[in-house]
Each structure stands twice: as C-alpha cells, then as structure tokens.
Design brief:
Elements (H helix, E strand, L loop, with lengths): L6 H14 L3 H30 L4 H15 L12 H11 L4 H17 L3 H25 L7 H6 L8 H18 L5 H23 L6 H40 L2
Length: about 260
C-alpha cells in the first residue's frame, strides 16, 4: 500500500504519476476544492437536522400550518388534510415520486440497465447509496418514534414516525444521485447544469407536496432534506477516498511495470 511507503518512494511515485498524467495536480486541486465544499455542506446539513430535531423549527411549522389552514381550509370536517380534494390529490401524485413503489420501479429499471451494460461498479455504488440511505432513514424514524411496534416488520412497512419525512429524505438521496450520475456522462456545461437543477427541483417539489396538504410539518421535511444531503456528502467523501487510493495503487503498478 502506498500510504505505508517511505516518504522518498511516495515522492517518486507522485513524480511518476505526473508524467503519466500531466493534469494530476490540477485534478488534485479540484478534488481538494470539492472536498472542502462537501465538508461545508456536510456540517451545514447536520446542523440543520439537529436544529429540526431539537424543535427549533416548530414555530415555522405552526406558522405555515396556520396560514394554509386559514387560506385553504380542511378538505372536509372529518379530514386533517388541508385544501380541496383535487389539491390533496395533486400533491399526493407529486409526493409519490419519493414513495417506495415509484422508487422501487425506477431502481429496478436502473439495475437492469447497469446489468445489461455490465457496469457492476456503478451499480454497487448506487445500491450502497440507496440502501444505506434507506437504513439510515429507518434508524432515524425508530429513534424519534413515540412508540416502537413489537413486530419489527411494522417498522419497515408502516410509518412509525413523521420525523424525518421519508419522502423528502429518500427523494433527496435518489434523485440527487441520479442527477449527478447522469451529469457525469455529459460534456456540455449547460446540460450538466440543467440535469442537476432538474434533480433539485424534483426534490423540492416532493418536500413541498408533503407540507401543503399537511401530511408533514416544515420541520419534518427540512429534517428529511438535511439528513438526505448529509448521507450524500458522506458517500461522496468515501467515493473520493476510494478513487484516490485506487489511483495511487494504479501508479504503483505502472511504476513497477516501467522499471
């Protein structure tokens, strides 16, 4: 392993790598800047999630709920949802983009696509991000649940806690990952920007569609967004470290063959 090699050997390998790849140092600087931004986003999203968990956004949730109730009213006298039936149905359709059935269908299509292209590395990376995010969501919901069911299956099949919003969190993880993956294969900056913005807009609409009909509070959705962003930052940092290590090991192999 390169990290255990003496300093002189590490310097020699770095020089050798610059000959193999003249853009090594510029790529390293760009990765350093991206890592810096990722750490800022990681810390910021973690702080926002903790603020939401401590109830410091409850005033905003109550203010938003009171405003929507006064402007739209309840669907009927027996319902807790806000707005007319068409309004509730519209938001339900948008929120379905972050629900389990739609995400499962999309994920199945992507798995088949990667298998057909024999891109197992990208497939396992995607499965790690989505599965890990789902496990993190279940852990968070279990931790903040007022009552934990005796049957463990109910933790998966039923929503045991509204905090954090599962639709907002999984929508953030899935559609942001999908947008980043697609943008990496695009060469035009305009199409890359459009792809990333489209992913963000979908995530935003999913969260808003949970707030408007009073299915979730603002604090629930903000917590889902922030925890999803937090997990994505962790995954990105891990990916950078793995790629950096593989790059160093490739340089070691190249040096040994060129001796």
């Amino acid at each position: 392993m390169l990290i255990f090699a003496p300093k002189k050997i590490r310097l020699l390998l770095m020089r050798k790598e610059t000959k193999l790849n003249p853009l090594y140092f510029s790529d390293y600087e760009n990765d350093g800047q991206k890592k810096y931004y990722a750490l800022i986003l990681l810390i910021s999203s973690l702080i926002i999630f903790l603020v939401s968990a401590l109830g410091l956004f409850d005033w905003l949730s109550e203010l938003t709920s009171s405003f929507l109730e006064s402007k739209l009213g309840f669907t009927n006298k027996w319902s807790k949802s806000i707005g007319p039936e068409w309004f509730v149905g519209l938001n339900k359709d948008v929120a379905a983009l972050g629900g389990f059935p739609v995400l499962f269908i999309f994920l199945t299509i992507i798995i088949i696509y990667y298998n057909l292209r024999k891109e197992s590395r990208r497939l396992w990376r995607l499965l790690f991000i989505i599965t890990g995010g789902c496990i993190l969501m279940l852990i968070a919901k279990t931790f903040f649940a007022h009552e934990i069911p005796d049957d463990p299956i109910e933790i998966v099949t039923n929503s045991i806690s509204s905090f954090p919003s599962g639709h907002a969190m999984m929508g953030t993880i899935f559609y942001t990952t999908l947008a980043v993956t697609i943008s990496r294969r695009q060469h035009s900056h305009k199409t890359k920007r459009f792809t990333l913005i489209s992913g963000v807009v979908i995530v935003f609409l999913i969260g808003i569609s949970r707030i408007l009909p009073a299915n979730h509070s603002v604090a629930d959705v903000v917590a889902g967004w922030s925890l999803g962003a937090n997990w994505l930052c962790v995954c990105w940092i891990l990916e950078r470290r793995i790629k950096k290590q593989l790059k160093k090991e490739t340089a070691v192999v190249s040096l040994s063959f060129n001796k």
